[in-house]
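INTERNAL TRANSFER SHEET
From: sequence group
To: structure group
Subject: Transcriptional regulator

Please process the attached sequence and return the structure record in the designated field. Keep the field labels unchanged so the import script can parse them.
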Amino acid sequence: MTEMTPVEELVVKVLEELGATKDTAVRTADDITKKCGRPKGLVANALQSLAQKGIIKRVAREKAAGYYLIKK
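Return from structure group:
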């Protein structure tokens, strides 16, 4: 398992709670930020880092990108 920061662990937990575990159930960074209760920049950095680590997937969409968990 890849080492995660406390904020990354929180983001993964929130994605699980929001049901974002497959490509048909993506959540926006705003959804995740609201549920996390952390600053948007902090959550955005965690999302980017988790995507680079292969833990979540970013899906580019017309309005806002979506994210979902691909492995725990």
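Handover comment: The chain has three helices and three strands. Residues 40-52 form the longest helix (13 residues).
Transfer complete.
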